[in-house]
């Protein structure tokens, strides 16, 4: 049997070094490895080049000054279109940006996984992707058509962080939701990949949950260096079917992120401790939220 | 559903409903391709087209599923007919079997679209979403635009950043960029536009009833091609109105996106 790769979030972060290129899985505010991102926030690691279909992972790392360069096609919270930390960081020139098209990121990761220098893509030509990335080159088809296409450069990663629903201790990762996003590609494009998951199960139990065929086994252990069990580890992003996006908490996050004073208070309340402290603070947030709603309901009933 | 049809359709057609009709028309005759709407009104339009004159359209639930019915906004589909995760959605654009209707923070006379940032790209005054898939969309499949509030801020002489490629930049970038490039429509809360002019600049195609060409010109930051005789955006049929009001958008979400 292959070796046990289980570790803690802090073990994962201890393997990262300043200046690394770090890929982060998920998409927008969907199945982001937030527990690992929170562990990264607690560390001294800095000057990162981050490759991500960006969501609050990028927002939090940007707010903490961890990013030297961001490689992305967008950053969004989905139900809230603009990520306040990301927009503020861009507007104060806090990091360098390699702004690509969504498909160029996909083919760039694919090229990196397959050890190719680039892949030809019909994207970017005629757009400002070329103007704002003067390092990009086109390639001419050697065949009769002679087409000139974008040479989407390989996006090779020093490390990748992804969050899945289940995994075994050996690094076989399983998604149970509707979309794999690009998590397998992130792992294959990286020299070291770390999978956090809602629950570590025995290999023999991976296919025992109802409706889980072998095609749910997205990430192969050959590409995984470490496995971390972090229940609620994608919070506040979605991790269907285990949980949906925590919209109330995300709204509170976005409100706080728009104001430096409020952000300090938010950080003190939610991000000053370890992952257990975070999850406890989130539970308290919902408890309080629930009571506030009840008080509001009572007031409204009183009004009638 | 108990409302008699006469009562439902006796309510005057709203601006938002003309916009729904204009969006639906963008997918007329599209055949068996994916209609990919972004925004509330385009989503209603795509579902209306599917339920009426374009029954072969493919639709998604906004996540990774292709849906075989056209449920009310916010409701789960009854029948899932396919799987379209993001990796397949991005690859589908390159097959050309898709007509996407995107939003636009800025749009210029040749159809260049900006959703990246306002101001100098190096140090923007207002950072927006980023390029998203606009560069790949515009070079590979028909791409239309939906602007719920037509203004001088959106319809500009020159976009600050080219995310979606317009006709001038596609032509200048060569045949690989232009061979599948097409912008069938721009639809705003005031009117419908296309690029059916000799120099591929934006043309007024139809005015929503109640809007004048002068109003459109005043809210547009570049000279529009305006034909001598500009028709009105067509009226919805009684059956279409019932589908919009009772089946697809019973909560009236369209009226929040377009204020009459």
Would you give an account of this structure?
- The complex is a heterodimer of chains A (304) and B (260).
- With 304 residues, chain A is an alpha/beta fold.
- Helix content of chain A is 34%, strand content 21%.
- Chain A contains ten helices and twelve strands.
- In chain A, the strands form two sheets. In chain A, strands 1, 2, 3, 4, 8, 9, 10, 11 and 12 form a nine-stranded mixed sheet that branches.
- Chain B is an alpha/beta fold and 260 residues long.
- In chain B, a hairpin with a 4-residue loop joins strand 2 and strand 3 (65-67).
- In chain B, helix 3 packs across helix 9 and helix 4 runs parallel beside helix 5.
- The model of chain B has no long low-confidence stretch (mean pLDDT 96).
- Chain A binds chain B through residues 27, 53-54, 72-76, 81-82, 86-87, 90-91, 93, 99-104, 106, 121-129, 131-132, 147-149, 178-182, and chain B through 63-65, 83, 85-87, 90-91, 93-94, 116-117, 121-136, 138-140, 161-165, 169-170, 172-178, 180-181.
């Amino acid at each position: 049997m292959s070796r046990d790769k289980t570790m803690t979030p802090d073990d994962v972060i201890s393997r990262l070094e300043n200046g690394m290129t770090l890929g982060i899985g998920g998409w927008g505010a969907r199945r982001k490895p937030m527990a690992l991102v929170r562990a990264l926030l607690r560390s001294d690691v800095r000057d990162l080049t981050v490759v991500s279909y960006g969501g609050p992972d990028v927002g939090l790392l940007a707010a903490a000054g961890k990013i030297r360069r961001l490689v992305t096609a967008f950053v969004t919270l989905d139900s809230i279109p603009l990520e306040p930390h990301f927009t503020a960081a861009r507007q104060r020139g806090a990091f360098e940006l390699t702004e690509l098209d969504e498909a160029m990121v996909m083919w760039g990761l694919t090229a990196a996984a397959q050890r190719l220098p680039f892949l030809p893509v019909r994207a970017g030509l005629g757009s400002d992707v070329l103007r704002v990335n003067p390092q990009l080159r086109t390639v001419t088809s050697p065949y009769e058509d002679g087409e000139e296409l974008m040479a989407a450069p390989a996006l090779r990663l020093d490390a990748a962080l992804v969050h899945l629903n289940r995994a075994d201790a050996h690094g076989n990762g399983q998604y149970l939701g509707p979309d794999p996003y690009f998590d397998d590609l992130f792992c294959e494009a990286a020299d070291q990949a770390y999978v956090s998951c809602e629950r570590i199960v025995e290999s023999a139990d991976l296919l025992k949950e109802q409706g889980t065929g072998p095609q749910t086994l997205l990430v192969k252990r050959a590409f995984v260096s470490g496995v971390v069990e972090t229940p609620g580890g994608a919070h506040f992003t979605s991790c269907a079917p285990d949980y949906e996006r925590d919209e109330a908490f995300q709204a509170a996050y976005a409100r706080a992120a728009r104001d430096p004073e409020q952000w300090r208070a938010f950080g003190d309340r939610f991000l000053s401790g370890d992952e257990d402290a975070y999850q406890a603070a989130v539970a308290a947030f919902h408890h309080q939220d629930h009571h506030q709603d009840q008080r509001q309901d009572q007031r409204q009933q009183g009004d009638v | 559903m108990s409302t008699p049809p006469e009562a439902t359709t006796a309510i005057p057609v709203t601006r938002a409903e003309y916009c729904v009709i204009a969006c639906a028309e963008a997918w007329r005759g599209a055949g068996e391709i994916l209609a990919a709407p972004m925004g509330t009104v385009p989503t209603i339009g795509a579902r209306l087209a599917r339920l009426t004159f374009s029954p072969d359209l493919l639709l998604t639930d906004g996540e990774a599923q292709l849906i075989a019915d056209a449920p009310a906004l916010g409701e789960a589909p009854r029948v899932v007919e396919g799987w379209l995760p993001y990796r397949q959605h991005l690859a589908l654009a390159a097959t050309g079997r898709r007509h996407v209707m995107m939003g636009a923070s800025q749009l210029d006379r040749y159809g260049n679209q900006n959703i990246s940032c306002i101001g100098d790209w190096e140090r923007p005054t207002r950072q927006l979403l980023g390029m998203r898939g606009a560069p790949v969309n515009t070079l590979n499949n028909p791409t239309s635009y939906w602007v719920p509030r037509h203004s001088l801020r959106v319809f500009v002489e020159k976009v600050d950043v080219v995310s979606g490629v317009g006709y001038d930049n596609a032509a200048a970038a060569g045949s690989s960029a232009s061979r599948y490039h097409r912008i069938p429509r721009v639809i705003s809360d005031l009117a419908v536009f296309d690029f059916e002019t000799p120099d591929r600049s934006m043309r007024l195609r139809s005015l929503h009833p109640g809007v004048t060409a002068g109003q459109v010109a005043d809210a547009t930051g570049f000279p529009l091609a305006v034909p001598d005789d500009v028709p009105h955006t067509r009226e919805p049929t009684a059956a279409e109105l019932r589908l919009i009001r009772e089946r697809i958008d019973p909560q009236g979400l369209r009226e929040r996106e377009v204020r009459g």
